Structure formats: C-alpha cells, structure tokens
C-alpha cells in the first residue's frame, strides 16, 4: 500500500448507534482501520518512521471517534433502564414490609403460646414431684411398722426423725420445683420479652421504612411531575423554535425564489437591451457605410446596400466591417 493512504474521517451519528453497536456491527470500520494498518513504511528512513507514527495516530483517532459515541449510547441505555430497576427495588421493599406486617400478629401469638406452654409444663412438673414425695412417704410408713414392734421409744424417735426428714425433703423438693419453675418461667418471660422487643423493633423499623418509602415515593412523584412539566415546556419551546425556523426557512426559500425570478427577468431584459443596442449600433455603422458608398463611389442607395450586404456576408475578399 502506498504512503499516501489516508483514513476517511469516521463519524457515528446518534441515529446510527442502535444498528452499529451490536454484535459485529463495527466490522466495516475495523476493515478500514486494518486496510490502513496494512501499509508498511520504510523504517530505515526518517520519512518512513514519521509515517509509522502518523498511521498509529490515525488508528487512535479512529478508535476515539467510534468509542466515544458508543460510550454515550451505552450510558443512554443504562439511564433508560434505571427507572425500571428503581421501581422494582421499591416494589420488593414494599412487599417485604407488607409481608412482615401480616406476619406480626401470628408471631406475637406464637410467643404467647410458648409462654403459656412453659408455665403449664412447670405446673405439671411440680404436681408430679409432690405426688412422688407423697408415695415415698406411704412406703416409708409401711417400712417403719416393724421397728414400732421392737421398741416404742425407738419407734417414737424414728417416727419423729422420719417425719422431720420427710417434711424437710418435701419442703426441699417443693422449693426446688418452685425455684426451677420460676426460673423456667422467668427465662420464658425474658425470651418472650426479647421476642416482643424484636417484634416491636421490627414493627418500628417497618413503619419507619414505610414512612421513608412513602416520602421517597412522594418526592419521586413530585420530581417526576416537575420533570414532566419541564420536558413539556421544553417540548413546547422547541416546537415554537422549530415552527419559527420553518417559517424563516420558508421565507428564505420564497425570497430566494423571488431573487432568482428577478435575476432571470433582469438577465432577459439585459440581453434584450444588449441585442437592441447592438442592432442599433450595427444599423448606425451600416447607414454610415451606405452613405459613404453613395457619396464616394457614385452608387445608388440600392447598390450601396447590396455592397454592404456582400461585405457582411464575406463574399468580397480582404474586406470587412468593424462594429
């Protein structure tokens, strides 16, 4: 390829973007750039080395000319889908809030049922423990009968110690059951309180999120209304400008047509005037020649006119009339 190869100025217009920035849509431009790059300057000469730099700059300029409108088109596409993304995000948040509000009563009911269940289990455990202690007491009474037959004093002492011991065990068991039941009930109450606090916090957060979402929706609606009004005003202003431009263009077109008509009329008039002036000039010269022939050559007017005609027609050698 010769060193005079140049790359045509690349330009992407906005309306071309959808058809070009697709799969293989820029192949035609790449072919032009590859054709330019096929040139092989002589690297051993300064001119050749300068040409290499020039070719590289051309490729860089071409890349920039294609990339910049492509980036602008890509940004436009991203901005076009952003409202849909924001709306979907807002919609899912609102649905989550509504779902949590629906589940809140059931969650509170579940917490209450767990508390009641824990209290009932503690009551049943205490009753079972008391019944077991009573059964143990009856068994102990039966076992102590034989000792009563051996010695009244031993029986009385044993009975007293047994009764005291059993009462102490019973009191300890009842106290232990009560403590355990109270501890379990306390734990359940604390757990229920924590769950209630969590539910309250979740409810407050949901209310705050709902309020924020409403405020954001109102703000976005207001901004959209303002943007719509602004775009409508801009559209009206643009329409007025376009209308005025169309009127001015029509006026310029009409003026150009009128100027062309007047120019044509002037040209025709000038040509007619020129022809008339030339005809008059020719008649003046012809009259002078005829008069001179009559006066100097002794010709009649008819003969003089005939001679003039022959000269004008080129029938008489070495003679001519200058007008």
In terms of quaternary structure, the protein is single chain
Give the helix/strand class.
mainly alpha
Q: What average pLDDT do the residues reach?
A: 80
Strand content: under 5%
* Largest sheet geometry: none
Note poorly predicted spans. 1-5
Number of domains: 1
Radius of gyration: 59 Å
Please bin the fraction of helical residues.
Answer: over 70%
The coarse overall form would be rod-shaped
First CA to last CA: what distance?
Answer: 62 Å
Question: What is the overall number of helices?
Answer: 6
| Secondary-structure element series | HHHHHH
Count of beta strands: 0
Provide the descriptors you would attach to this structure in a database record:
323 residues, disordered N terminus, mainly alpha
Could you characterize the architecture of this molecule?
The chain is mainly α. It has one domain (14-268). It is built from 6 helices and no strands. The chain has helices spanning 17-20, 27-37, 46-143, 145-150, 152-297, 301-312. Mean pLDDT is 80; it is low at 1-5.
Helix-strand blueprint:
Elements: H1 17-20, H2 27-37, H3 46-143, H4 145-150, H5 152-297, H6 301-312
Write a concise synopsis of the structure shown.
By secondary structure, this protein is an all-alpha fold.
